[in-house]
Amino acid sequence: MSFKKLLKSGGIALGLGVWAASSIVAPAKAETREFMMKWFLEAANSQADVKDCPLGLNASPEEMFRAQLHAIGLSKDETEYLVTRINGGSSPNDVRDAIVYRGRSPDGKPMQAYTYPTSVPDLKLFHPYIGPNAYGFNLDGQVKPGDFTDPDTHEKGIDNAYARAVGCQVNQRGSRTELPTYGARHWDFARDKSPAWLVRLVADDFTKDGDVTVYVFRAMERAARDANGSLRRYWTFRRDPDTRWQNVMHGKIKDGVMYAEGDKLEMLGDPFGYSNFKLRAPHFRGYFNPDGGLEGLLGGYVPWKTMFFVGGSGAYNFETMTGTNVPALYYALEQNADATPDPKTGKNTEISGAWRIDGIQAYIAESAQSAMNTSDKSRSTK
């Protein structure tokens, strides 16, 4: 089904939120639709035949530990004795200590692998995701060797270096219909304890080509579930008045698809998921599903150390419970980073990526506090 048909089939008017007299208020005749993000996940496009990973999928956690322990000088017998006794958070102390302190200083002393990931030898344990297709946007306006092609729009020059870095990691494999285990696990846990993320769309007429404004806010309440554990639609959320979470992108509707861009986007999430998510040059593409929900894509550049923080702070438990080797993740992100070189080292500090948004209908309530503390100018580009 085309984007245009999907848009028309989802043409139910979703009531307006409660508006305040602030710069966030839409024009008097504007149509507004509001959503809560049911999912916000890495936009994976894994192939069932694994041709997108010609070097194969990344090895198991045990195999990565074996390789790293052996590389720092442990014998095969010593390594096997430790690795075969790994049991997540219940591992014996000697096993935990060997994994945690598998880094080595220049003079050979043990170092903590999570705070000092480069103290662990770089064994190239994360295989590169080759594609050729990946979701995202042409952020730099160029078509370069190694760039991807978007599987939906067929646009070339797609910048998604995050997919290249982690796309062959088993727990980050997925598609539009099969959620990546890594992202889905974090997001599902986080939304029961962290405030929801919200989207407001404003246009004169969503069924026609024209201007569109995309707002992304943080709520003051968590998502609500029904008796079956499903997220409730048409729930009302108060917009967090903190000026940092007032994000605006401007763009156009073309053939039923919304396109918008901004200067920067910042959101606060759960510390063990998307913590302080800072996106530079955000790009948005979205359309309405037949049930009136929102399917969207958000892309841009994010500091790669922000993406590493989840693993680094989660340390041993993160590794043994998610199957993601933390030092290997560090090297993969650092080596695939593709934007904003550090003036001293010349190494890139940001990595391009794309995230999928699945939004369900909601209402966004304003407050006097929101009206006093929010300014569209803080996030708008033009």
Number of helices: 9
Termini separation comes to 34 Å
Oligomer: single chain
Secondary-structure element series: HEHHHEEEEHHEEEEEEEEHHEEH
**Beta-strand percentage?**
25-35%
Low-confidence residue ranges = 1-23, 374-382
Radius of gyration equals 22 Å
Q: What's the total count of β strands?
A: 15
Number of domains: 2
Question: Shape, please?
Answer: globular
Give the helix proportion (percent range): 10-25%
Structure characterization notes:
The protein has 382 residues and is of the alpha+beta class. The chain has two domains: 3-46 and 158-378, no CATH class; 61-119, no CATH class. 23% of the residues lie in helices and 27% in strands. It has nine helices and 15 strands. The protein has an eight-stranded antiparallel beta barrel with strand order 1-6-7-9-10-12-13-15, surrounded by four helices. A two-stranded antiparallel sheet has the order 2-3. Strand 14 (339-341) and strand 15 form a beta hairpin. It is globular and about 75 Å long.
Observed structural traits:
globular, 382 residues, alpha+beta, 15 strands, two-stranded antiparallel sheet, 9 helices
The gist of it:
Helices cover 23% and strands 27% of the residues. The protein has 382 residues and is an alpha+beta fold.
Layout of strands and helices, then pairs:
Layout: H1 3-9, E1 31-42, H2 61-71, H3 76-83, H4 93-100, E2 103-104, E3 110-111, E4 148-149, E5 156-158, H5 161-166, H6 181-190, E6 197-203, E7 210-218, E8 235-238, E9 247-254, E10 257-261, E11 264-268, E12 276-288, E13 294-303, H7 304-322, H8 326-336, E14 339-341, E15 348-365, H9 368-373
